[in-house]
Design goal:
180 residues; mainly beta; 6-stranded antiparallel beta sheet
């Protein structure tokens, strides 16, 4: 049983940072795939997710990719293509980059998850801090255009009860919720 990505509406941030959900929920993905690590792009046109959408997903559960889901059409395109887990996508506030973690699976008992930065315009990928001898812990920190901290929360469960939510304090209309 998977978790679908569903757009729950558009929020308009108020003075206190709370947002109201407007509009009707619309499911964007189909199939028995678990979607995780959900993040919005800066312009709100795409949702970034991590998932194993391969035909053999049940046989190779650790082979996830980062995907971009077009909010308007529901079209899904893979941003990463390698054997191993790619997860935790995060878009830069200016929309030019996508950060994510992952590694090339070599069937070892432990492998360090590495931090990568992808250019959105050409897909060029580079590893950040390749000589670091430990994994990153915790989330990403990014400043919004208004210099207030961007806040996003993720709650995921396998199955229909899983949900993902996001709140951003700013003075513009922002995509707000996802439920899966």
């Amino acid at each position: 049983m998977g978790s679908a990505v569903t757009v729950a509406g558009t929020g308009v941030a108020g003075d206190n940072g709370d947002a109201a959900v407007l509009g009707t929920a619309r499911q964007l993905t189909e199939g028995a795939f678990d979607h995780d690590g959900v993040a919005w792009t800066a312009d709100g046109s795409e949702i970034l997710v991590s998932a194993n959408r391969h035909e053999n997903a049940d046989l190779v559960p650790g082979d996830s990719e980062v995907y971009a889901v077009d909010v308007a059409t529901g079209a899904i395109r893979a941003l990463t293509k390698r054997f191993g887990p790619d997860s935790d996508p995060a878009a830069s506030p200016d929309g030019k980059f996508i950060a994510y973690t992952g590694f090339d699976d070599a069937y070892q008992g432990y492998q360090r998850a590495r931090l990568y930065l992808m250019r959105r315009d050409n897909g060029e990928i580079r590893e950040l801090a390749p000589d670091l001898d430990r994994e990153r812990r915790g989330g990403y920190i990014a400043a919004s255009r208004s210099n207030s901290a961007r806040r996003s929360g993720v709650k995921t469960n396998s199955g229909p009860s899983g949900s993902v939510w996001r709140s951003e304090r700013c003075q513009r209309s922002v995509p707000y919720g996802i439920a899966g």
